[in-house]
From TrEMBL:
Annotated GO MF terms: ATP binding; ATP hydrolysis activity
Pfam families the UniProt entry points to: ABC_tran
Alphabetical list of InterPro entries matching this protein: AAA+_ATPase (IPR003593), ABC_transporter-like_ATP-bd (IPR003439), ABC_transporter_ATP-binding (IPR050763), P-loop_NTPase (IPR027417)
Family: Belongs to the ABC transporter superfamily.
PANTHER family membership: ABC TRANSPORTER ATP-BINDING PROTEIN (PTHR42711), ABC TRANSPORTER ATP-BINDING PROTEIN NATA (PTHR42711:SF5)
Domain ABC transporter: 4-228
Record-given protein name: ABC transporter ATP-binding protein
UniProt keyword list: ATP-binding, Nucleotide-binding, Transport
Amino acid sequence: MATIEVNDLTKDYGSVRAVDSISFTVERGEIFGFLGPNGAGKTTTIRTLLGLLEPTEGTASVLGADVHDEDALIDAKERIGYLPAHLGFNEEVTGKDVLDYHASVKGESRREELLEIFTPPVERPVREYSTGNKRMLGIVQAFMHDPDLVIMDEPTSGLDPLMQEEFNEFVRGERERGKTLFFSSHVLSEVRRVCDRVGILREGDLVGLEDIESLLGQGGKRVQLQTTDEASADLTALDGVIDVQTFAEGIQFIYTGEYNTLLRELASHDVREIEINEPPLEDIFMHYYGKDDAVESNQEVASDI
């Protein structure tokens, strides 16, 4: 049985259809990334999986519990950890008080272990916490009862780069322990380090469901270089070159073709400076899932959707 199973799930907010008939499964022991720009429908899907929202149409099950079955879902939640995007902790109590409360509800078998890795100042009031410390406190509460499934909404938001890497290493270890992790993100570099598969949302539609290597291969590489006009013309004529932009003394483009072909062409010209890296998630959306949603990824409309 899949840990999460979603079938034709739809959620309407009056005039806005936040999620439109999406279907996917998440298998036991995998890390599943749920990708999309702000407003794509990621948080709505997560809240529906947790029974916090009622589907307009379709259904989903989590750890075998149908989201329409309140009693079954309550039982299943004993084995689920949840890290929301907006943590909403009581600012006047200490971090220890927050963890004590969650422990009284669901247990704390891994609390001390987690506090060795993620180090919020638990003796201080939450109002004194930085964004990163609040996020670490949230991570501890989500995992401390040793759940079978952890659902996270933008889990590394606010963490510094070193702690982000600690988190990535930690979740890889959780997968090795047989845990299932489902998390939303709009950061491709984050999901590529840890995810086995990804689902991609565009304006409420599931437009891609792929393993991570396939996604990165479709995204190609962003190439920026300074060279001559003649070289620029030859390079942009190659198969697999898209989204060409020119600037002083050079060009920038996305390359989705065979890399040796690009390297041979580069070697035949005078290249003064070059930078090759992954395109941002928005560019992958633009070239493979439609330009409109990539443009709209910058719109923070309905960011809670």
